[in-house]
Amino acid sequence: MNDWVRAKVVGKHQWAEGLYSVQFDAPIADFVAGQYIKVGLDIEGERIGRPYSLVNPPQSRPLEIYFNEVPEGPLTPPLSALNPGDEVWLTATASGIFTLETVAPAETLWMLATGTGLGVYLSMLRTPDPWERFKRVILVHGVRLSADLAYAETLNDIANQHGERFTYLPAVSRENCSGTLGGRITDLLTDGQLETRVGVSIEPATSHVMLCGNSAMIKDAKAILEARGLIRHRRQAPGHYSTEGYH
Ligand SMILES: Cc1cc2nc3c(=O)[nH]c(=O)nc-3n(C[C@H](O)[C@H](O)[C@H](O)COP(=O)(O)OP(=O)(O)OC[C@H]3O[C@@H](n4cnc5c(N)ncnc54)[C@H](O)[C@@H]3O)c2cc1C
Ligand SMILES: NC(=O)c1ccc[n+]([C@@H]2O[C@H](COP(=O)([O-])OP(=O)(O)OC[C@H]3O[C@@H](n4cnc5c(N)ncnc54)[C@H](OP(=O)(O)O)[C@@H]3O)[C@@H](O)[C@H]2O)c1
């Protein structure tokens, strides 16, 4: 059983309209980068809880989540109205297997995210794990609008720390934006633009691909990767790609 613990909101940042990060202080158990906690609010006498990936690396506090408001959703409108000093509930123990723990070392780690799926990688990238297991790490962030390209400062710090071993590729699908790729991640995979841009190809022998965010993107990307010989990674049967669908 996963108990609820009280958490205090200690920070909040709005990146764009409807797009937020919120920080908490709470006594949760140790976690592994890539795991999620549930965040809960008591609304009209009922506890509404939803899973959120932790953005902070395991060794640092405060705890942080990154989310977008779903106007018709029960949790995200009140969640985005929280301010420092307010209280929420968090599950005491993080869950999830979208981690690097069982992934075999390889040449290249591809981290593909849509929307708030970026957050989970910001936790992993600030641990030694990806850098001990892979020679290169390529993070691709697919968003609708350039205003949704959050966490520039954190990404800059990671780039400064890891130099040429790290490549960040933003992709914007609904407007032209200089310095970014244009279109969906799946289209950029199909036409080879992603690989051409970094000069590295995605192959079963050399690559592990992580997919996080929109489930339709994951479904489409999975078909593209499987057609190229990559198989799903499982704890008991190691493969070449791992997934975490948010919606
Ligand atoms: C393992 C896991 C980890 C997750 N981590 C994150 C995270 O780090 N950040 C994050 O923003 N969300 C994350 N989610 C989604 C999150 O749990 C909520 O579903 C979401 O924040 C909406 O909550 P809600 O109560 O307002 O609406 P819900 O009742 O959860 O959903 C209402 C409707 O909106 C859809 N929906 C859910 N999320 C979105 C979205 N982002 N955009 C558009 N439609 C959506 C649902 O499919 C449903 O149809 C995660 C989900 C899972 C399963
Ligand atoms: N995340 C945010 O930054 C944000 C901020 C405020 C409000 N919201 C609201 O939250 C909802 C979800 O936003 P989101 O940005 O997370 O949306 P999203 O629909 O997941 O879009 C994020 C990126 O994924 C792409 N995508 C969607 N389906 C795909 C597929 N099958 N294959 C490949 N790529 C795919 C989108 O391309 P296309 O543009 O081609 O669909 C876009 O580039 C929306 O209602 C949005 O208005 C989001």
Write the layout of secondary structure elements.
Layout: E1 4-16, E2 19-25, E3 36-43, E4 46-53, E5 63-68, H1 76-80, E6 87-91, E7 106-114, H2 118-125, H3 129-133, E8 134-143, H4 152-162, E9 166-172, E10 181-182, H5 185-190, H6 193-198, E11 207-213, H7 215-227, E12 241-245
Parallel strand pairs: 7-8, 7-11, 8-9, 9-10, 11-12
Antiparallel strand pairs: 1-2, 1-6, 2-5, 3-4, 3-6
The structure holds flavin-adenine dinucleotide (FAD) and NADP nicotinamide-adenine-dinucleotide phosphate (NAP).
Commentary on this structure:
By secondary structure, this protein is α/β, with parallel strands linked by helices. It folds into two domains: 4-91, Elongation Factor Tu (Ef-tu), domain 3, CATH 2.40.30; 106-245, Nucleotide-binding domain of ferredoxin-NADP reductase (FNR) module (Rossmann fold), CATH 3.40.50. Helix content is 22%, strand content 35%. The strands form two sheets. Strands 4-3-6-1-2-5 form a six-stranded antiparallel β-sheet. Strands 10-9-8-7-11-12 form a six-stranded parallel β-sheet, with helices on both faces. The structure holds flavin-adenine dinucleotide and NADP nicotinamide-adenine-dinucleotide phosphate. Flavin-adenine dinucleotide is lined by residues 36, 50-53, 65-68, 70, 73-76, 116, 119, 244, 246-247.
CATH superfamily of the largest domain: Nucleotide-binding domain of ferredoxin-NADP reductase (FNR) module
Coarse morphology: globular
Mean pLDDT: 97
How do the SSEs run, as a string of H and E?
EEEEEHEEHHEHEEHHEHE
Question: Could you tell me the radius of gyration in angstroms?
Answer: 18 Å
Q: Which small-molecule species are bound to the chains here?
A: flavin-adenine dinucleotide, NADP nicotinamide-adenine-dinucleotide phosphate
Strand order of the largest sheet: 4-3-6-1-2-5
Number of helices: 7
CATH architecture descriptor text of the largest domain: 3-Layer(aba) Sandwich
CATH topology of the largest domain: Rossmann fold
Helix content bin:
10-25%
Return residue spans where pLDDT drops below 50 for at least 5 consecutive residues.
none
State the secondary-structure class: alpha/beta
Largest sheet: 6 strands, antiparallel
Q: How big a fraction of the residues is strand? A: 35-45%
Tell me the number of structural domains: 2
Any idea of the CATH class of the largest domain?
A: Alpha Beta
Distance between the termini: 25 Å
- Count of extended strands: 12
